[in-house]
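User: Hi! I'm working on a homework problem where we have to compare a predicted structure to a textbook description. Could you give me the structure for the chain below?
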Amino acid sequence: MKKYENYSSNLRVLAQASKQDLTNDFIISGVIDKFFIQFELGWKLMKELMQYEGRREGMTGSPRAIIKAAYVIYDFLDEEVWLSMLRDRNDMTHIYDGEAAKRLVDKIIAEYIPAFIDFGENIKRIYG
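Assistant: Happy to help. Predicted structure tokens:
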């Protein structure tokens, strides 16, 4: 599945974030950009899997609706973390504040990357 391959490929790069110079504004921006991409790939993968399963919930276009539906279907999914990702993505898209960016990178490394990894591993386990 191409979406899963893209998800995994981007995640391999994003997962290296903690090994980078996180005092560098350019690196911080890059981590956030990779997070934005990873989040998009994640919810779109959820949508495609729901469509593959023939579930009508996969027909909506809203990331929020997809995440809420996926939470009901996939018991391993942490709805609170994924909705937090959605909020952070939306907030940082419109406002750039250096301190907020640094806080987001810390959150990406501590919470979001592990959630992305967990989602990918569980999807691989279920779908092969």
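For your comparison, note the following. Residues 18 and 106 are 9 Å apart (CA to CA). The domain at 2-127 is CATH 1.20.120 (Four Helix Bundle (Hemerythrin (Met), subunit A)). Good luck with the assignment!
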